[in-house]
Amino acid sequence: MNVHAYRKGLEFGFTDVAFDQYGWFVHPQFLNYEEVKLGNSNRYGEYGEIRIGRGPNDIWSYALSYSFGCAGSGSALSVYKPHFASRDAARAHALSKLKVMFTAQIGSSDTTNYKQDIIQKTLKGMDQQMVAMTQLSLF
């Protein structure tokens, strides 16, 4: 598993070899790490978040964390994530993926796990991010 982790790290340009106290490969630290918050926050944090970073060879990737109310998921930014040539491409893909997931839950009958107000607020936050990206690309 350590060899596999090292080889995946090479795809992003990470070449350092280090092990933690348990003998596992140390996760490389992405450069230009950025967190994009979406929607309103609750007492546990944001309802949606995109984490973006790049490797030393300028390959970018993203990770998602999101909550529909009670249902949700999250992951760390890692070398196992998809590759993108630019920050904007990684960010746009992450926003698009989240938008599809949230849009699919509009009108869900499971109102415990899929709170409609949270879904709408997070979709609004995504729309604001997409508009901001579009406006920046015009200049």
Topology, element by element:
Elements: H1 2-11, E1 31-42, E2 45-54, E3 60-67, E4 72-74, H2 87-103, H3 116-137
Antiparallel strand pairs: 1-2, 2-3, 3-4
Could you please describe the fold and organization of this structure?
This protein is an alpha+beta fold. Helices cover 35% and strands 24% of the residues. It has three helices and four strands; from the N terminus they run H-E-E-E-E-H-H. The chain has helices at 2-11, 87-103, 116-137; strands at 31-42, 45-54, 60-67, 72-74. The protein has a four-stranded antiparallel β-sheet. Helix 2 packs antiparallel against helix 3. The longest helix is centred in the C-terminal third of the chain and has 22 residues, at 116-137. The protein is globular, with a radius of gyration of 17 Å.
Count of individual helical segments:
3
Coarse structural class: alpha+beta
From the spread of the alpha carbons, the general shape counts as globular
- The first-to-last residue Cα distance is 45 Å
Q: Would you list the SSEs in sequence order as H and E?
A: HEEEEHH
* Mean pLDDT over all positions: 89
Largest sheet: 4 strands, antiparallel
Helix content: 25-40%
Quaternary structure state of the chains depicted: single chain
Instruction: Work out the strand percent.
Output: 15-25%
Which runs of at least 5 residues are low in confidence (pLDDT < 50)?
none
Radius of gyration: 17 Å
**Strands, total number:** 4
Spatial arrangement of strands, main beta sheet = 1-2-3-4
